[in-house]
């Protein structure tokens, strides 16, 4: 049984308007990445995420990046282009740039909804990073950076380059400065989409990219799948191997000429780019909590760079990074004698935060504190006399005022003080709820299966949830009597999962339906957000016959190894193993109808469920590990 057609049409329309990440791989979910997401519903640019400038670049002549061109109003981040009354050197006009304050955006899905200006300037959305030494060579002067141009739109109605008005134009550049050279060489690979439903200046469009890994990305326009790009590997086998920052920029191009006229630049009806929102997502295992990533606010907060990158302080050589006794990973900050490790961060005004660090004191006492990064240096929070001889987490609670730049310090007062500090992080104490970016629902990927042989219900499903939810599965007989129900987690995000659930008893022969619903945590039937019902399933006295094959497990119970045997199958057979909570704990595949499976990574004295899939056929069985 399907959801009502009207609801399906509404969901399809919502998806087109809001777009969304592509379906996640089985066992994972997409989770909104707040550091690189913004609905622009306030009145000011969020200074914990963005700046209205571009580091070390003023813009391409003749248009300069003008900070005052950027505003947030009426639910949009706006960049308004204009004409300078008095030229600023070679700059006679201006656009604007909004860039992320962090350079930690990594593999994931990135999308932005905007309407471009209608002048001969671009409206863009892209990722890039700063120059870094090119370590594959022995040269000390060659450098490289990466640029992932998700979209470059130009609303200029002159017919010079119509594809920049009518399509999603995308490009990728590995930017390399050869040894001894001063200019860079671009190793590029680009693409464009099919025609958009309207020109880029006529209406809002959503532009997205899934950055898979160091070698590939896939582009999307208005939720439609575009081209998969393999990055240019002429100079490097892994050309996109580093995190990047995000940019939303309006600029001039030397090939997009003639440049806007004074009349166009002064026409408020056509000179402004409107960014509705930007959203970013990370893949997270289906039942794992969202990662609290120290790199969001504190890159190299765990010193795993092996140095003091991004850290300042005083005390000369007494401040080091050590491999002797880290709390976690390979490195920790070490201090011996009077001095301090210090770090400057930008936070929200008038907001309460928690500064956390694992500290181990070898001698004397230590101080962990936070102060304003200005002349007054007002102390916002501090813990004195830290003396624990083993690693313990110390937490300082503090509230910012109008000053958004703060400095925290790990401070040794005397020459007899010595300590290690590791895994520093700052988290907002009561963060606001994330924007509700998903139309919440639940769906079956394929028809569920019931098995009397293993007394299991096997379900492949996907869901979307803006908050942590309950997902409830029910089995009803032909008289609409509920014969089984269970609840599992539906953690925030867009998830895709296969689960095998123990029925606990054998079902009678007959017809059954499986229903899944999504609801608030602990919610009642009256609070169900969405539901999906399977087709009618007929259970014979033994099991379902259609698309089912038999498997043999030996030995069972097993300890270190189990042999899986099937008959008459062709090609690859996929194996998934679930624990009794329905969580996927192992996945592999085999050919030739036999597999010797190593069980050493699984817990002993436990029961598991195996699901095998070969083309359209499935099989399930219990496995007990002694």
From TrEMBL:
Range of residues in the leader sequence: 1-19
Keyword Signal: yes
Species annotation: Algibacter agarivorans
Pfam families for the chain: CBM_4_9, Glyco_hydro_16, Por_Secre_tail
Protein name: GH16 domain-containing protein
Family designation: Belongs to the glycosyl hydrolase 16 family.
Boundaries of every GH16 domain copy: 14-286
Keywords, in A-Z order: Hydrolase, Signal
InterPro entries, sorted: Beta-glucanase-like (IPR000757), CenC_carb-bd (IPR003305), ConA-like_dom_sf (IPR013320), Galactose-bd-like_sf (IPR008979), Secre_tail (IPR026444)
Keyword Isomerase: no
Gene3D superfamilies in UniProt: 2.60.120.200, Galactose-binding domain-like
């Amino acid at each position: 049984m399907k959801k009502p057609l009207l609801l399906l049409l509404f969901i399809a329309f919502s998806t087109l308007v809001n777009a969304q990440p592509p379906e996640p791989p089985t066992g994972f979910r997409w989770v909104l990445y707040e550091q690189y997401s913004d609905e622009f519903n306030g009145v000011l640019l969020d200074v914990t995420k963005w700046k209205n400038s571009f580091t070390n670049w003023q813009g391409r002549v003749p248009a300069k990046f003008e900070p005052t061109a950027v505003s947030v109003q009426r639910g949009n981040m706006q960049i308004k282009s204009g004409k300078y009354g008095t030229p600023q050197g070679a700059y006679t006009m201006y656009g604007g740039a909004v860039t992320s304050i962090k350079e930690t955006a990594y593999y994931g899905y990135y999308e932005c909804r905007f309407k471009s200006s209608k002048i001969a300037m671009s409206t863009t959305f892209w990722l890039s990073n700063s120059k870094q030494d090119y370590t594959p060579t022995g040269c000390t002067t060659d450098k490289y950076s990466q640029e992932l141009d998700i979209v470059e739109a130009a609303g200029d109605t002159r017919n010079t380059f119509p594809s920049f008005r009518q399509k999603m134009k995308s490009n990728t550049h590995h930017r390399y400065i050869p040894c001894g050279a001063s200019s860079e060489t671009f190793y590029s690979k680009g693409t464009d989409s099919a025609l958009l439903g309207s020109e880029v200046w006529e209406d809002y469009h959503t532009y997205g990219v899934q950055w898979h890994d160091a070698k590939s990305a896939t582009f999307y326009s208005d939720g439609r799948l575009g081209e998969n790009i393999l990055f240019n590997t002429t100079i490097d086998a892994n050309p996109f191997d580093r995190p990047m920052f995000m940019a939303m920029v309006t600029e001039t191009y030397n090939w997009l000429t003639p440049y806007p006229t004074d009349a166009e630049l002064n026409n408020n009806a056509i000179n402004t780019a409107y960014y509705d929102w930007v959203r970013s997502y990370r893949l997270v295992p289906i039942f794992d909590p969202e990662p609290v990533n120290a790199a969001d606010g504190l890159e190299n907060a765990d010193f795993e760079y092996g140095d003091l990158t991004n850290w300042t302080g005083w005390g000369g050589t007494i401040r080091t990074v050590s491999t002797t006794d880290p709390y976690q990973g390979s490195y920790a900050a070490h201090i011996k004698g009077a001095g301090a490790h210090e770090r400057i961060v930008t936070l929200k005004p008038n907001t309460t935060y928690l500064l956390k660090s694992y500290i181990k004191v070898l001698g004397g006492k230590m101080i962990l504190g936070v102060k304003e990064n200005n002349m007054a240096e007002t102390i916002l929070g501090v813990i004195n006399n830290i003396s624990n001889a083993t690693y313990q987490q110390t937490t300082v609670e503090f509230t910012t005022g109008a000053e958004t730049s703060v400095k925290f310090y790990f401070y040794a007062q005397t020459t007899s003080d010595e300590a290690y500090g590791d895994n520093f992080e700052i988290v907002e104490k009561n963060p606001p709820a994330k924007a509700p970016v998903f139309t919440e629902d639940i769906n079956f990927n394929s028809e569920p299966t019931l098995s009397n042989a293993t007394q299991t219900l096997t379900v492949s499903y996907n869901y979307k949830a803006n908050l942590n939810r309950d997902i409830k599965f029910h089995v009803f007989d032909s008289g609409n009597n509920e014969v089984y129900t269970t609840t599992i987690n539906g953690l925030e995000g867009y998830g895709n999962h296969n689960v095998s659930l123990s029925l606990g008893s054998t079902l009678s022969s007959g017809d059954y339906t499986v229903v899944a619903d999504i609801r608030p945590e602990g919610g009642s039937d009256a609070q169900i957000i969405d539901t999906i019902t399977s087709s009618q399933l007929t259970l014979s006295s033994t099991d379902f016959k259609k698309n089912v094959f038999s498997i043999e497990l030996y030995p069972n119970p097993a300890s270190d190894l189990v042999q899986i045997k099937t008959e008459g199958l062709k090609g690859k057979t996929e194996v998934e193993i679930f624990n009794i909570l329905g969580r996927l704990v192992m996945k592999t595949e085999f050919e030739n109808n036999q597999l010797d499976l190593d069980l050493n990574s699984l817990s002993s004295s436990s029961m598991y469920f195996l699901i095998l899939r070969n083309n359209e056929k499935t099989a399930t069985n219990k496995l007990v590990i002694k």
